[in-house]
Design goal:
single chain, alpha+beta, Beta-Lactamase, 6 helices, 6 strands, about 55% helix, about 15% strand, globular
Length: about 220
């Protein structure tokens, strides 16, 4: 067999081996994403008055990191009194330091996302004039890239924002990542709305029961 033919066959075999490896990795990643989204959907539907909302938000964020293959992320909610964004849940290198930290109204990329109610992909935050570098400076973190999506209800009310930072292996965030995070954000908002309604219903029931105790038993219904 000529040397050129042998070389060609070896190159093709190597190429096909690499393609098969890439396909296996993509299939594994897809399966993990489906599992994470399925778990999140289940969580969003199984809301009860006793649901631990903070744990729910933590599960939501962890699902987002799995789906997007990223190392760090946070979920911030709008303080209705001050309009500031407050870090409620965080995962990653400086997660513990972030909880309770406030971002002034309209500041940063996350502030822009909330104000404009539009998701954003930023592949290099240092080139984006909206970037709020105060967090990096205070906690010694290095934000390289990010994707952020508002947590918005059907009536237009924005509850907050979910952001995912620094995709692993220094890869760039893609439109597919944004689309997946939009699904996560929609399920998150649904879960929080359900939790809000369940808690409100529970509070009304407790109030009614307490009221009934104060006023005594109801009179018998007329026969």
């Amino acid at each position: 067999m000529p040397d050129e033919t042998t070389r060609f066959l070896k190159e093709e075999a190597s190429r096909l081996t690499n393609e098969n490896r890439d396909l296996r990795e993509e299939l594994t990643a897809l399966r993990e994403s489906v599992r994470a989204l399925s778990a999140l959907y289940y969580l969003s539907q199984e809301i009860k008055p006793e649901t631990d909302v903070l744990q729910l938000l933590t599960d939501i964020l962890e699902s987002a990191l799995v789906v997007l293959k990223a190392s760090d992320g946070s979920l911030m909610l709008v303080d209705e009194e001050t309009s500031e964004l407050v870090f409620v849940v965080a995962r990653g290198e400086i997660a513990d330091e972030l909880i309770g930290f406030r971002v002034p109204t309209g500041q940063g990329i996350v502030g822009w996302v909330v104000a404009h109610r539009e998701p954003q992909i930023v592949r290099d935050v240092r080139l984006d004039p909206r970037f709020f570098d105060r967090v990096d400076e205070l906690f010694g973190f290095n934000t390289r890239s990010m994707v952020a999506v508002p947590l918005q209800l059907d009536d237009g009310r924005v509850l907050g924002v979910i952001e995912v930072l620094n995709k692993v292996s220094d890869r760039e965030f893609t439109q597919d990542d944004l689309d997946l995070l939009l699904i996560v954000a929609e399920l998150s908002a649904t879960a929080m709305r359900r939790a809000e309604r369940a808690t409100a219903l529970h509070d009304r029931m407790v109030s009614a029961m307490q009221s009934a105790k104060k006023t005594g038993p109801l009179p018998p219904s007329p026969s």
